[in-house]
Structures are given as structure tokens and as C-alpha cells.
Design brief:
By secondary structure, the chain is an alpha+beta fold. It contains four helices and seven strands, in the order H-H-H-E-E-H-E-E-E-E-E. The chain has one domain. Helix content is 29%, strand content 51%. Strands 1, 2, 3, 4, 5, 6 and 7 form a seven-stranded antiparallel beta sheet that branches.
Amino acid sequence: MKHIKIIATLTMVLVMFSGFWSGKNKNELRQERIQSSKETLKLLYKHAPEAKKMIQNSYGYATFSNVGINLILLSAEGGKGLAHNNTTSKNIYMNMGSGGAGFGLGVKDFRAIFLFENKKVFDNFVNHGWEANAQADAAAKTNKHGGALNAAITVAPGIRLYKLTQNGLALQATIQGTKYWKDGDLN
């Protein structure tokens, strides 16, 4: 059990701080996140075409690229992204991380897209962070094979979420704390 905790912790640290050792300057890191956001939206529109109009009509949105690890009774996720204000066209660079307990086994590369109905929920998300505490997934996908359940859900008043599995294989039912916050180095 102790070994599993160490492995999960080290994996999460590596995922969260991978950009720290990249040798890239802040502008290059920002451009990578912008490109990743564009690719995430393109993937979303492919699987849920109705989302394009929803995003255009929202106050703002946030996209995240995440990697999740589930090792028997422990889970960890780490990721990076940005929140975009449709009114001002400003990007706010953000990070996410989580850890939890529950039955699971696998590694999952996924994308999360949040849609914000109004200024209040958008500002609260980017200025105070946001936490989610329950999760149940069943995903099996490798490149173009397999399938994943992809649907927008309301996760809080004024906030909808799409979660797309990019690559990976995971079966999990965890209670997990996920935190989103501003990236202090890129904003």
C-alpha cells in the first residue's frame, strides 16, 4: 500500500510539473496551451457539434488536457489548460490536480471543457479555483479504436462540463478532490 501511494504521488508531481523542466520560455508555454485548447475544441466539435454554438453563446469556457492514473485504491490527475473570456477575448492560464481514493486501475488521457453561463461563475472559477468531489468513469479508447461516454453535464449552477477521453484505458469509481487554479507563472 505504501508503494502505491509513492507511485501515485510521484506520477502526479511529474505530470503537474512537466513544463517546469521543458526549457521553454513563458511565451512558448502559453502558445502550447493555446494550441492545445484549439485542438481540444476541434475534438469536442467533432464528437458534439452542438457544443460549438453553446461555446459561442457562453460567457466563457475553459479547456484542460489531463492525465489520470488509477492504481487499485488510489487515483491522481494532473493537467494544464486555459480559461477564455468570450467578452474580452482574454486567456487565463490554469492548472488542475487531484487525488482520491476508490477502486480503479488504468491510465487515462482526457480533455475537459467547461462552459460558463455568466460573468459571476466564470470569475469565481478563475479567481478562486474550483473543486469537484465525485467521479465515475468507464472508458476504453486507444487512438481511433474503442469508445468513451462523452456528454455535457451540469456540474454546478451556471457551469457545464464535457469530458472527452483522448487515449487510455480506465475503469474507476472514485471520490476525488479536483482543484483548478491560475498558473502563477504564465498569467
